[in-house]
Amino acid sequence: MNRTVLDLWVGVFVAVGVAAVLFLALKVGNLASANIGETYRLQANFDNIGGLKPRAPVKSSGVVVGRVTEITFDPNLYVAVVKMDVDKRYSFPRDTFATILTSGLLGEQYIGFEVGGDTEMLKPDATITKTQSAVVLEKLISQFMFNKAAESPKAPEQ
Amino acid sequence: MTRLLRAMGARTVDGIWRLGFATRFFLAILARSGTSFARFQLTIREIFSTGVLSLIIILVSGFFVGLVLGLQGYETLQRYGSSEALGILVALSLVRELGPVVAGLLFASRAGSALTAEIGLMKTTEQLKAMDMMAVDPIARVVAPRFWGGVISMPLLAALFSTMGVFGAWFIGVVFIGVDDGAFWSQMQASVDFRYDIVNGVIKSVVFGFAVALIAVFEGYDSAPTAEGVSRAITRTVVNSALAILALDFVLTSFMFRGNG
User: Fold this and answer.
1) Facing A10 at nearest CB: one of B48, B82, B202
2) Which residues of chain A lie closer than 8 angstroms to B166, CB-CB?
3) Per-domain boundaries in chain A
4) Using CA atoms, how far apart are residues B13 and A100, in angstroms rounded to an integer?
5) How far apart are CA B198 and CA B25, in angstroms?
6) Per-residue pLDDT for B124 more than 60?
7) In terms of CA atoms, which chain B residue is nearest residue A108?
């Protein structure tokens, strides 16, 4: 095989291979959509994080605005400390409510920001004070059972 | 009894000796690979024979693996009412594991065996010795370009395999079964992380490329210079490459994915 044809084939091969990597990065992976450039650090304390994991998304109104970077346990306060990187383009009021939510019934858990009305914004490295823990299914069920048990004696009277 | 022990000892010593020889051979290739980059045409020729000529089998197998993954994944996922997660299942299993591993196995049997046969036959017909006589270093002229050709081809082939697999799963899942197109891609994108999944997959395929290419050229160079010796060397290439890929895959996976994702 002569040299130009050979070079052409190898060139095509390399180009197609690089295109495949790009396809994987852009179409299969989330390089384009979750490309968070400049970020700032926020922190929030939760009583119970449920199944929240590092790299979980932080969403506001359903839009991904950041990612959880680190989850640690504070031995003095007995709470979970969640650190997250939030996109610099977005700033949130100081009374923003951070809630651990679940996408779908069995989906992954994420942090949802519900924006308050404060005029002052959260500064980098600030701690969000208003938080709500993850819903633990067992607790929910036991509460429900407890309520039912409390109700049931009335039932025969009706 | 003594004979059994002696046989065991001989095998162990032999194995360690070969391992040491392979390591020195690897270092010799690295030290003399200047030629394969200075005269890049030599390496391009090898990329053609290992990479371009392996394209058909890689693309077709990737597509079929994707088809099967799509069908089987859908079958299981729809029991739990989450058939939209098909994209996640297919993309993660291909990018993290199946892409590099299966492409590596195919690459070892398609290109690795050819490399061994070529170098082994060169040795049998004393072409390597003839080169040495003409003061042409056979490692720099013959072995190193083949090694680098394999190393360069392998990650590209693995990426193509994964891409074809995803496309195959899309074809069966979205076009034939009727999984929602938007959900298929968006759920996939939401849970496949570039750094964590794709880069780790590429790292795996690069490591496999080094392992397979090294085993192939080493077995060829080390083969007994007879017809039988060459055929044995080819067998060893395929077997050792497969074992090396699977063992390395386990080691790499246990370092990369610790289950905290």
Assistant:
1) B48
2) 24, 28
3) 1-33, 39-143
4) 59
5) 31
6) yes
7) B191
Pick from B41, B47, B160: which is nearest to A16 by CB?
B160
Alpha-carbon distances of B102 from A22, B93, B208, rounded to whole Å: 20, 11, 11
Contact B160, B99 (CB under 8 A): no
Tell me which DSSP letter residue B32 carries. T
In tens, the pLDDT along B58-91 reads 999 999 999 999 999 999 988 887 887 888 899 9
**ipTM reported for the complex, 2 dp:** 0.78
| B193 contacts A30 by C-beta, under 8 angstroms | yes
Say yes or no to pLDDT of A156 above 50: yes
C-alpha separations of B6 from B9, B13, B19 in Å = 5, 10, 20
Give the other-Cβ count within 10 Å of B255's Cβ. 10
Quickly list H helices, chain A: 3-23, 137-151
Give the separation between CA B211 and CA B207, rounded to whole angstroms: 6
Query: Number of CB pairs < 8 Å for A and B?
Result: 86
Shortest alpha-carbon distance between residue B46 and chain A (Å): 9
Domain boundaries, chain B: 55-255
